C-alpha cells in the first residue's frame, strides 16, 4: 500500500484551492487532501498535520506565506479559540461567495446536479443577529463564567462580549456571572457528578426586546433564592420569563424532563413578518429573524399560490412556514414528530387566526403512506428536515404522492445534494432553482432553498 505523503506533527507548505462543506480550506500534497480551518482559497500556507487518516488529513495553520486580499481581522477577541464562528477572518462579501461555491460543489459532486446556484442572500449588518444562546458554565477560583466550548473539545472559552449577540444579551451575561458568583452557586462537573448549575439558556424576542432565561440544574435546589430573581427583574425589566430545568442525567444531554416557571410569563412572543409566534423554553424558532423572514417570503415566491392549492408541510416544526403559506393556499397539512413543537404550532395558528392549517403529530414516513391511500392531489410539498436530511422512505413517499412542486429547505448542503439526487433520478422532477440564504453569518452553516417541479 502506498504511504501517505504527510506525517503527524510535521509541517507542509501548499496552496489552498477550495473549501469543505464545513468551511475548512482544502489543500493537497500529491493529490492527498488536507483540511485546514482558518484559511482562504488562494492563500499559500504552512500547516502542521494534527490528524492523518487513510484518505485525508487535518492540519493547524502555522504560517500564512501568501495572504488573501479577502482576509480581515476578526472582531471577536476569542475567535481563534471559540468554536462558535469559523469565518470571521474572511470579508463578508467573500463569505457569501464561498457559501454559494460550497453549495454548488456539493450539488455537483454528491447530487450530480448541473445547475448554477443563485447568489447567496446576505445581511446588511451581519453581526449581533442571534436571538438565542446556550451557554456552558465554568467556575475558577470562585468566579463563574458563561461561555462556549472550543471546537472539537470540552475546553471552556468565556463568551467575552460575543459579537453575534445583542448588546443587551452581553450585558445580561456579565450581570449573571457577577451575581451567580456572589451567590456562591456551584457548577456541575460531568466527571465527578458534583456541583449543580449545568447550563444557562437565554432567548430574546427581537420584536419586543423581551428575554427568557432558563437555568439548567442537577438538583431541585437552584442555589440562589427569590431575592436573586427579584434583583434580576429590577436590573433587567426586559427579563419577563425565568425557568429552571432539572436534568439529573449524568450524561451530556441538553434537557431534563422537568421545566419549572420561576418568575414571570410562560412564553416569549416574537414576530416573523406580519405573524406572531409564542416561544416556550423548548420551542424551535429561527435564531436569525431577519433572514428567516426572507426565507419564508422566498418560499411564497417559489410556491406562487393562487388560493386553491393543497399543501403539505413535512417537518413543519412550530409552523412558521406553514402559517405563511396558509394565508395563500386552500388547505395546508403540517406534519411534526416532536409533540412539544406540534403543541406550539397549534398555539401559533390560534394566535394568527389560521383556520385552514391542520396539524398532525407523527413520523413523516408513516403519514405520507396514509395520505397516498386518500388519493387527494397535492400541489406543493414543503420539505424542511433536520441536518441529516430525509430518510429513504420519506423520499419514496414524496415521489409516490406526486406533488406538482417541491420546495426543499435545507441546513446541510451535503444531505440536500443526496436527497435531490434521489428526487430527480428518474426524471419525474427537475431542479429549477437553488438559493442559499445566509442565516448564520460568520459561521460555516448554510441554509438553502431548492425548488423542484414535475
From TrEMBL:
Record: residues binding S-adenosyl-L-methionine: 286, 315, 336, 384
GO function term, MF aspect, one: rRNA (uridine-C5-)-methyltransferase activity
Annotated active site: 411 (nucleophile), 411
Keywords: Methyltransferase, S-adenosyl-L-methionine, Transferase
GO BP field: rRNA base methylation
Domain TRAM: 5-63
This protein's record includes keyword Repressor: no
Matching PROSITE patterns: SAM_MT_RNA_M5U, TRAM, TRMA_1, TRMA_2
Gene3D superfamilies cross-referenced by the UniProt entry: 2.40.50.1070, Nucleic acid-binding proteins (2.40.50.140), Vaccinia Virus protein VP39 (3.40.50.150)
Name under which the protein is recorded: 23S rRNA (Uracil-5-)-methyltransferase RumA
Organism: Candidatus Sediminicultor quintus
Amino acid at each position: 500500500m502506498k504511504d501517505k505523503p504527510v506525517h503527524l506533527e510535521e509541517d507542509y507548505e501548499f496552496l489552498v484551492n477550495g473549501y469543505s462543506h464545513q468551511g475548512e480550506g482544502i489543500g493537497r500534497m500529491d493529490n492527498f487532501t488536507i483540511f485546514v480551518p482558518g484559511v482562504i482559497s488562494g492563500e499559500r500556507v504552512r500547516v502542521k498535520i494534527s490528524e492523518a487518516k487513510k484518505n485525508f488529513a487535518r492540519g493547524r495553520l502555522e504560517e500564512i506565506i501568501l495572504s488573501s486580499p479577502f482576509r480581515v481581522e476578526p472582531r471577536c477577541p476569542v475567535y481563534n479559540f471559540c468554536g462558535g464562528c469559523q469565518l470571521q477572518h474572511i470579508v463578508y462579501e467573500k463569505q457569501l461567495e464561498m457559501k454559494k461555491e460550497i453549495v454548488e460543489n456539493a450539488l455537483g459532486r454528491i447530487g450530480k446536479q448541473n445547475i448554477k446556484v443563485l447568489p447567496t442572500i446576505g445581511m446588511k449588518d451581519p453581526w449581533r443577529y442571534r436571538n438565542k444562546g446556550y451557554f456552558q458554565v465554568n467556575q475558577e477560583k470562585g468566579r463563574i463564567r458563561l461561555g462556549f466550548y472550543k471546537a472539537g473539545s470540552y475546553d471552556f472559552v468565556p463568551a467575552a462580549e460575543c459579537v453575534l449577540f445583542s448588546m443587551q444579551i452581553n450585558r445580561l451575561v456579565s450581570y449573571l456571572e457577577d451575581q451567580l458568583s456572589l451567590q456562591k452557586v456551584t457548577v456541575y462537573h460531568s466527571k465527578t457528578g458534583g456541583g449543580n448549575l449545568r447550563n444557562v439558556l437565554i432567548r430574546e424576542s427581537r420584536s419586543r426586546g423581551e428575554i427568557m432565561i432558563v437555568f439548567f440544574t442537577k438538583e431541585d435546589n437552584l442555589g440562589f433564592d427569590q431575592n436573586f430573581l427579584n434583583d434580576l427583574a429590577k436590573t433587567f425589566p426586559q427579563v419577563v420569563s425565568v425557568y429552571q430545568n432539572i436534568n439529573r442525567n449524568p450524561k451530556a444531554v441538553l434537557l431534563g424532563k422537568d421545566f419549572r416557571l420561576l418568575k414571570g410569563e410562560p412564553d416569549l412572543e416574537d414576530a416573523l413578518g406580519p405573524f406572531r409566534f409564542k416561544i416556550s423554553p423548548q420551542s424551535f424558532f429561527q435564531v436569525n429573524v431577519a433572514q428567516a423572514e426572507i426565507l419564508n417570503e422566498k418560499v411564497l415566491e417559489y410556491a406562487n399560490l393562487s388560493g386553491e392549492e393543497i399543501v403539505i408541510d413535512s417537518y413543519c416544526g412550530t409552523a412558521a412556514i406553514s402559517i405563511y403559506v396558509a394565508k395563500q393556499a386552500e388547505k395546508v397539512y403540517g406534519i411534526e414528530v416532536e409533540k412539544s413543537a406540534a403543541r406550539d404550532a397549534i398555539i401559533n395558528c390560534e394566535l394568527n387566526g389560521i383556520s385552514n392549517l391542520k396539524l398532525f403529530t407523527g413520523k413523516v414516513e408513516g403519514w405520507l403512506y396514509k395520505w397516498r391511500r386518500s388519493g387527494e392531489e397535492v400541489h406543493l410539498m414543503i420539505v424542511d428536515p433536520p441536518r441529516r436530511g430525509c430518510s429513504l422512505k420519506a423520499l419514496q413517499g414524496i415521489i409516490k404522492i406526486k406533488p406538482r412542486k417541491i420546495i426543499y429547505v435545507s441546513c446541510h448542503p451535503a444531505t440536500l445534494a443526496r436527497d435531490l439526487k434521489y428526487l430527480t433520478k428518474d426524471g419525474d422532477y427537475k431542479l429549477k432553482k437553488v438559493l442559499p440564504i445566509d442565516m448564520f453569518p460568520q459561521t460555516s452553516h448554510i441554509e438553502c432553498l431548492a425548488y423542484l417541479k414535475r
